[in-house]
Design brief:
4 strands; mainly alpha; single chain
Length: 575
């Protein structure tokens, strides 16, 4: 580890923190219907969309109507993307002349991008036409992010409102998320990425002669526009197979920094939006502080693991020390231009945010480093998370925390003035437990059936880690992978599609039920016995609850994978 490395991590963290309040305040005004600068320009467009779709923006919905609208909209998204992939061989804007995508892979991909997961069992530049990339993958990245933001805003309204039977209008929330938040940032980000050298063209592959006289085909296409939303949306699906390690997706240290900022900016700022909408910014800062503690602990652990290198290489006389001519550390599977520091930071940011973008091969991280990345996701997408889903996942744990605290002090639990009753606790437990259930059940199944074992690229603990990481990534809507697992098989395409579906919608529906229940309640006045939830004590208590729940749930599985592999590496035994 070097002082320059820590300085780079600190600079990124400070920039993210500086964006929280302005972006959070802007989103509060957007979703509260208050005037904004962009409203003068985009207001007529928004009203035109409502007229065209015959939507009454003043008509609000009860929670179950909101949920049905969301589920129906996303079901149409799955069908539309599946059809596009199956028919791409007959459709235009296909200069590569790609045939239809295999049915199981098409289903997996349709579910993946509709659920904001971006799991890719294919190489984008060798499988999808430009039309599929633009009208399919890119569009769903926008829509899935807008869906997550809408759910978070609905839950915030549940905490903020008094004696309401409604939690907003899904169509309005999604439209505003698209029009005022996602599109403006992506337009600016796309122009920046094009300026930095990322392609944005409808031309096909380009031929180039190599030094030895051979002919090489260089893939290109409408890349910049897809990269901007893949990062901002928490989707992470790359145009190219190697994702943000490809110089056409991430050409420089500057683009690397900006791409990480895009991953974090909305998820972090929504905590401030929450604080403002419930009437006390301190509650938002408390949630952000809990996220920050977990983020800092994770990035420090991954950086330490990767910067110290792999002790198994010592026997070969390989110099892994940082110096003037090399970044040092474990450089297997990493880009020299990023080194161990920026690879560790990018991987931490991606797994903290449920984004899934990568600028290094996660399968080549040390067992300790890879294990921390896995643990980041196993904490239920609470460390910033994807737009919307990170906030509502953290609020679920806040409900659990105040419930436990209420049991400890003998009082009815309250959070931001709302009493937490049996309905909220039941829905929270349902949302939190369904994800580890599907992860552990599918990993156990893959570990014993021939179809699951056939995809392993490694045996022993690392092979188990590959399977555990895959299902964790799918259920936590992340999409990154230990790529030693060959997942483009009917077994993995279908089981991962199931994991992604459960991890997204089996959480969203209980969250909306909680929002509806809370919105109908009156705010309880603060008293001497009220637990302050905007102070450091609650922040630490909340972090403890998150870690304990994640630890108790996944520790046995992690012990069979990354933990035992780390001990084997330290002892010099290689699998």
């Amino acid at each position: 580890m070097t002082s320059i490395g820590w300085l780079q991590i600190a600079l990124f963290t400070i920039i993210v923190a500086a964006t929280v309040r302005p972006v959070g305040g802007y989103m509060m005004r957007v979703f509260s219907g208050e005037p904004t600068v962009l409203g003068r320009v985009l207001g007529p467009v928004e009203r035109g969309i409502y007229r065209l779709a015959e939507i009454n923006p003043a008509a609000e919905q009860e929670w179950y109507v909101y949920a049905l609208a969301l589920l129906a909209f996303n079901a149409v998204g799955v069908v539309a993307l599946y059809a596009l992939l199956r028919l791409q061989g007959f459709l235009p804007i296909n200069p590569q002349h790609f045939e239809a995508v295999d049915p199981a892979l098409a289903l997996n991909t349709a579910v993946s991008f509709t659920t904001n997961t971006s799991w890719q069992s294919y190489g984008g530049e060798t499988t999808l036409s430009f039309l599929s990339q633009m009208a399919g993958i890119t569009v769903q990245s926008f829509l899935s992010a807008a869906t997550g933001i809408a759910v978070a805003i609905a839950l915030i309204r549940g905490f903020a409102r008094r004696h309401f039977s409604t939690i907003g209008n899904f169509w309005v929330d999604m439209t505003r998320a698209l029009l005022y938040v996602l599109l403006p940032i992506c337009i600016v980000a796309t122009l920046f990425l094009v300026w930095q050298g990322i392609p944005q063209t409808l031309d096909g592959t380009l031929g180039a002669a190599t030094l030895d006289g051979a002919q090489q085909l260089i893939a290109r296409g409408p890349v910049a526009s897809q990269i901007a939303i893949k990062l901002l949306s928490g989707d992470g699906g790359g145009f190219f197979n190697v994702n943000s390690a490809h110089p056409f997706e991430n050409p420089s240290a500057l683009t690397n920094l900006v791409e990480m900022l895009l991953i974090f900016v909305i998820g972090a700022a929504l905590t401030n939006t929450f604080g403002r909408m419930v009437g006390n910014e301190g509650h938002g800062w408390a949630l952000l502080a809990a996220m920050a503690i977990l983020y800092i602990a994770g990035v420090a652990a991954v950086y330490a693991a990767e910067a110290h290198g792999n002790p198994a290489f010592a026997a070969f006389g390989i110099d892994q020390r940082a110096g003037e001519l090399q970044a040092g550390g474990n450089m297997e599977g990493k880009e020299v231009r990023f080194g161990a520091t920026m690879s560790a930071l990018f991987a931490t940011v991606a797994t903290d945010s449920s984004d899934g973008a990568v600028n290094a091969m996660l399968d080549s991280f040390t067992p300790g480093g890879g294990g921390v990345l896995m643990a980041n996701m196993m904490l239920d997408e609470v460390i910033v998370g994807a737009p919307g889903s990170g906030l509502f996942s953290m609020l679920l744990f806040a409900i659990i925390a105040v419930f436990i605290a209420g049991l400890m002090i003998g009082r009815t639990p309250e959070y931001v003035g709302k009493k937490i009753a049996a309905t909220e606790v039941k829905m929270t437990v349902l949302a939190i437990l369904c994800i580890p259930l599907v992860i552990l059940a599918l990993t156990a199944t893959a570990s014993v059936v021939a179809a699951g074992l056939a995809g392993l690229g490694n045996s022993g603990p690392h092979g188990f880690s590959e399977m555990l990481y895959a299902f964790t990534s799918g259920a936590m809507t992340n999409g990154s992978a230990f790529a030693g697992l060959s997942a483009n098989t009917p077994f993995y395409n279908l089981t991962l599609a199931l994991a992604m579906f459960v991890g997204r919608f089996f959480v969203i529906v209980p969250v909306l039920a909680i929002a509806g229940s809370l919105a109908a309640k009156q705010v309880v006045p603060v008293s001497a016995g009220t637990l302050p939830t905007n102070r450091l004590l609650f922040v630490l208590f909340l972090v403890g609850v998150i870690v304990i729940v994640g630890g108790l749930t996944f520790l046995p599985a992690v012990s069979l994978g990354p933990a035992v592999e780390q001990f084997a590496m330290q002892s010099g035994r290689l699998y």
